[in-house]
Structure formats: structure tokens, C-alpha cells
Automatic annotation (TrEMBL), chain A:
Matches recorded under InterPro entries: Arg_Kinase (IPR023660), ATP-guanido_PTrfase (IPR000749), ATP-guanido_PTrfase_AS (IPR022415), ATP-guanido_PTrfase_cat (IPR022414), Gln_synth/guanido_kin_cat_dom (IPR014746)
Residues annotated to bind ATP: 27-31, 92, 126, 177-181, 208-213
Regulation of catalytic or functional activity: Appears to be allosterically activated by the binding of pArg-containing polypeptides to the pArg-binding pocket localized in the C-terminal domain of McsB.
GO biological process, one term: phosphocreatine biosynthetic process
Recorded name of the encoding gene: mcsB
NCBIfam families referenced in this protein's UniProt entry, alphabetically: PRK01059.1-4 (NF002194), PRK01059.1-5 (NF002195)
Family: Belongs to the ATP:guanido phosphotransferase family.
Function per UniProt: Catalyzes the specific phosphorylation of arginine residues in a large number of proteins. Is part of the bacterial stress response system. Protein arginine phosphorylation has a physiologically important role and is involved in the regulation of many critical cellular processes, such as protein homeostasis, motility, competence, and stringent and stress responses, by regulating gene expression and protein activity.
Domain Phosphagen kinase C-terminal per the UniProt entry, residue ranges: 24-255
Name of the molecule in the record: Protein-arginine kinase
Catalytic reactions of this protein: L-arginyl-[protein] + ATP = N(omega)-phospho-L-arginyl-[protein] + ADP + H(+)
TrEMBL record, chain B:
Sample GO molecular function, one term: cobalt ion binding
Keyword Magnesium in record: no
InterPro entries cross-referenced by the UniProt entry: UVR_dom, UVR_dom_sf, YacH
Record protein name field: UvrB/UvrC motif-containing protein
Coiled coil: 140-172
Annotated GO biological process: stress response to cadmium ion; stress response to copper ion
Length: 354, 182
């Protein structure tokens, strides 16, 4: 498996399958933070120690397979161009923080891009496992299995009382961050989400807008994750998160049908205007594209738009990010050039669907 | 002047913004200012990491009187492995290594309690290989609390089953139902 494969396609292979409730939940993710017992953490450790860790992962796991995760690609961050780093971040295969730790950081990515293992991020090891749609429990079991596989060769920093010892006190214990990405256009349109977020926060969960700054969510995509990692089992944390996600799905569906009943025509108008913008614009900013894509996806979910696949939001959301556009153009682009290329890529992609 | 965001309400707030050295004027109403994030409310604007170092500074040494403080400075906790001191830890908000957890152990409970909703003790996964005896120890704790609950509920038949499991575990023989098939 080579880096090039990850660069060519915006949409990861695992995203092509539809998961449960995938009209609203785009993906489920489990992240586990782990460290070597005998090496200081990346913020303070000597460079040669961290290089040993990086090399350990290359020597032991490069091109190896484990269960459905085949042919791990070993990617040293120091070998990547700025655009390549950006693409991996935009695909959520690595974190922005990992991309900054260029000298000693690396990633192991499975062929289906379902598992990515970040080496020398804030912790020595960050395991990320993705599943399409709403299947957190399944993702947790898979992440545990992968964690056990790594533990065959790695002595983890673990303590009976404190659990998995992480660099940041906010991750100690389970070291787990479970999250889902949700498309909540109706709750955002009616501003109901603004009232729900504080209540969700009180339950020890965090709601964040994706592709937006602060609490604003451009394109109505939200990430919901757990904040607490100590004092509860992973299963309990996942269960709590799941029950909140279920309620959000429920509220979103209700809000959709209420809008359909009360202002169907104006909703339809809004959806088709967005569709028109995507189909015909020659210059489009990322924010406008995100808003239009969200509306079109809602249009597909509600049956207004036919013959366009639902995956289009996932795919174009990533494909139209600055890193990907420049990867596609094979050169650095100014903001205006990006807006032009974005518009033309979206037009092409929608043509393909017809 | 009307609000430049909603074009409905009058603009009551006027800002000068500098983004990457570029100056721009913003005229908005209060509703849009809140919504678009022009106004920073302290309870919303902080990330957890910002808050964390604040939380940790609110720790014992600052609460005690100034005289005691000077003594504490002298004998500050320092990790024998990575050489991180407790005040460095508070400043950075990150541990330097696994040994820091032992070194700073006496000071950590209040921090963990604040960050993890009152919790200080791990309840979750135990490493499969390294865990060794811990797995049985945890299983025993689970059984015992289950037994207690069953007795309280007067479910004696089920309680007897759990008691047998505890006995089996004590004798270190594999449980017929939950043990390894091997």
C-alpha cells in the first residue's frame, strides 16, 4: 500500500458502505490513546527515543495485515509535502497536531482506511477506528481487538488505579474518545440545536461544529463526543453517547417532517436553489459550497432530488477542501483559483451522477 | 446603519477586526454578534485545554499562606524519570511520562475530580496480556457487588450461582461458562 492511494480518492473505502441511520449519522469513530510504559511522552522525550518508537512501528507493522485491515502503509510525516499532509488531515486519517510533529511522527494506515494509527502525536500511540453510520458499539469492539493486537508487542503505560496513562489528564483512564459525525440540517435550520447543546454538555458530552469556527457548524455537520475518560467503563461511555445520539436522530427526523408539513415549498425552494448553485456556479467559496451541499443532501434524504447518491456530501465535502484541490491541481493555488476549481469539480461530479 | 449580517435590525455594535494584518470594519446587531461569534463570552469561548491550566493553578500551593509557599518552592515535586516538576506540569497541562503519575500522585485527585466529573479511579479496560491477575481481581469485584445486590433483592437462587462462581475463582479453577474454552 502506498501513500498515493490515499491521495487519489477523497472518499475512504469504508465510507462507500452505508451504515445504520446513515441518513443522519455519517460516521462513528473510536480513538484510543496509548503510551509505551518506559519512554517519556512526546512533549518531553529525547528525539532518539521517539525515533526508536517510530522505527518500531515501521519494522513491525509496515505492509502487515490484521483481520480486515490489510496491508498497512507506513507514512513518515517528514516525507510528506505540505499538500499531502493537508490531504491526510482533511480525510481525518491524521490529526493537525500529528502533521506539525513532522520530525518524529508517523502514521500506519490500513488499505481500507478504517484504522489509522498515529505515532508520536500527543501520546506515543493513537488508534483511530472508523465505521460508516451509527455503530459505536461495533466500533468499540473492533478498536479493542486492534488494541489487543498491538498490546501483544507493546508494553503499555497502565496503572491499576488510573488506567491507561496519557500525556494529557483529560484522556487518562480509558484513553478513549468516542465520537459520531451527524448531519443535522433541520435542527440547525430551526435553531433547536442551539438549545440542545447546553443540555448535552451537562451530560459530559461535547458538541462541535465541523468545518466551522467555534460553535457554528457550516453545512450543519456536528461532532458529538465524550469528555470524561476516567471512572466509567468504555461500554458505559459509549452507551451514554449512543442514547444522546439516538435522541438527536429522533429530534432531527421530527424537525424534518415538521418543516415538510409547515413550509414544504420554501424548503423545496431552498434545496433546489442550492442544487442550482452547485450545478451552475463558476466560482464558489468553501463555506457556500458546504451550505449548498448540506441542502442538496437534505433534498436527497427527503426525496426531492433523485438520481444523486447520498454519499455526495461526504465526498464533495472532502474533495473541495483546500488541500485536496491543490493535490488535484498538482500545484499551489490562490484562494480565487481554488474557488474556481472547486466550482468546476462540483459541476463535473454532479454531471457524472446523471 | 443596518446590521450587515441580517439586514433587518439596526447595527448596535461596531468592531474593527484584524485578520492576518487586514483591517476590516464590522457593524452588526447584538443578535448576529452572538450568533456569528463576534462577541466572546467567557463561558463559551474557552477550550478545555485553556480551562485546564486554570483549574490546576487553583491548587493547594496557591491556597495556603505565603510563608508556607516559600518552603514548598524549595521541596517542589520533581519526576525522577523525565525531570518534570509539578509547577511545569501545571503550566503545560501535560504529564511528561508515566512515572509523573506516581510522583505527583498526592496532588492529582482534585485535578482528576474536576476534569472527570468527580472520578479518580479507572473502571474500564485492563490490558489483555499485561493485565494478568488484574482480570481476575476485577471479575471478583464484579461478582461480589453482584452478589450483594442479588441478596438485597432476595434473589437467592441467582445469588447462589454467583457465590459458586466466586468460589471457583478463589480456587483458581476456570469458570465453566465464562472461562477460556482451552
Amino acid at each position: 500500500m502506498t501513500l498515493q492511494n490515499f491521495m487519489n480518492e477523497a472518499i475512504s473505502p469504508w465510507m462507500r458502505e452505508e451504515g445504520p441511520d446513515s441518513d443522519i449519522v455519517l460516521s462513528s469513530r473510536i480513538r484510543l490513546a496509548r503510551n509505551f510504559a518506559n519512554v517519556s511522552y512526546p512533549i518531553i522525550a529525547d528525539k532518539d527515543k521517539l525515533e526508536e518508537i517510530r522505527d518500531f512501528f515501521r519494522d513491525n507493522y509496515e505492509n502487515q495485515s490484521f483481520e480486515e485491515y490489510k496491508d498497512f502503509a507506513f507514512v513518515a510525516i517528514s516525507d510528506l509535502s505540505p499538500v499531502e499532509k493537508r490531504v491526510l488531515v482533511e480525510k481525518h486519517l491524521i490529526s493537525p497536531h500529528l502533521a506539525e510533529n513532522a520530525e518524529i511522527a508517523a502514521a500506519l494506515i490500513s488499505e481500507n482506511e478504517q484504522v489509522s494509527l498515529m505515532v508520536n502525536e500527543e501520546d506515543h500511540i493513537r488508534i483511530q477506528l472508523y465505521l460508516p453510520g451509527f455503530q459505536l458499539e461495533n466500533a468499540l469492539q473492533k478498536a479493542f481487538t486492534f488494541d489487543d493486537f498491538l498490546e501483544e508487542k507493546v508494553n503499555y503505560a497502565f496503572d491499576e488505579t488510573r488506567g491507561y496513562l496519557t500525556s494529557c489528564p483529560t484522556n487518562v483512564g480509558t484513553g478513549m474518545r468516542a465520537s459520531v459525525m451527524m448531519h443535522l440540517p433541520a435542527l440547525a435550520m430551526t435553531k433547536q440545536i442551539n438549545r440542545m447543546i447546553p443540555a448535552i454538555n451537562q451530560l459530559g458530552l461535547v458538541v462541535r461544529g465541523i468545518y466551522g469556527e467555534g460553535s457554528e457548524a457550516i453545512g450543519s455537520i456536528f461532532q458529538i463526543s465524550n469528555q470524561i475518560t476516567l471512572g466509567k467503563t468504555e461500554e458505559d461511555i459509549v452507551e451514554d453517547l449512543q442514547s444522546v445520539v439516538k435522541q438527536l436522530i429522533d429530534h432531527e427526523r421530527k424537525a424534518r417532517s415538521r418543516i415538510m408539513e409547515q413550509s414544504r415549498t420554501s424548503l423545496e425552494d431552498r434545496i433546489f436553489r442550492s442544487y442550482g448553485v452547485l450545478e451552475y456556479s463558476r466560482v464558489i467559496e468553501s463555506k457556500e459550497a458546504a451550505v449548498c451541499l448540506s441542502n442538496v443532501r437534505l433534498g436527497i434524504d427527503l426525496g426531492f432530488i433523485e438520481n444523486v447518491s447520498r454519499n455526495i456530501l461526504n465526498e464533495l465535502m472532502i474533495l473541495t477542501q483546500p488541500g485536496f484541490l491543490q493535490q488535484y491541481a498538482k500545484r499551489t493555488l490562490t484562494a480565487n483559483e481554488r474557488d474556481i476549481l472547486r466550482a468546476s469539480l462540483i459541476r463535473e461530479r454532479l454531471q457524472l451522477e446523471k | 446603519m443596518e446590521c450587515q449580517e441580517c439586514h433587518e435590525r439596526p447595527a448596535t455594535l461596531h468592531f474593527t477586526q484584524y485578520v492576518n494584518g487586514q483591517k476590516s470594519e464590522v457593524h452588526v446587531c447584538e443578535v448576529c454578534a452572538k450568533e456569528k461569534g463576534y462577541m466572546n463570552y467567557p463561558e463559551e469561548g474557552y477550550s478545555l485545554h485553556n480551562l485546564l491550566s486554570g483549574l490546576m493553578n487553583f491548587d493547594t500551593s496557591t491556597i495556603k499562606g505565603p510563608q508556607q509557599n516559600t518552603f514548598q518552592q524549595v521541596q517542589e515535586l520533581q519526576c525522577p524519570k523525565c525531570e518534570m516538576t509539578f509547577s511545569e506540569f501545571k503550566q503545560v497541562g501535560k504529564f511528561g511520562c508515566a512515572v509523573c503519575y506516581d510522583t505527583f500522585s498526592s496532588r492529582l485527585d482534585p485535578i482528576f475530580r474536576r476534569v472527570h466529573a468527580g472520578n479518580t479511579k479507572h473502571q474500564g479496560k485492563i490490558p489483555k496480556r499485561q493485565g494478568g491477575d488484574l482480570h481476575n481481581k476485577k471479575l471478583m469485584e464484579d461478582y461480589k457487588s453482584k452478589l450483594k445486590r442479588l441478596i438485597e433483592d432476595e434473589a437467592f437462587e441467582e445469588a447462589a450461582e454467583v457465590r459458586d462462581k466466586i468460589k471457583a475463582l478463589e480456587n483458581n479453577t476456570q469458570d465453566p461458562e465464562e472461562g477460556d474454552p482451552s
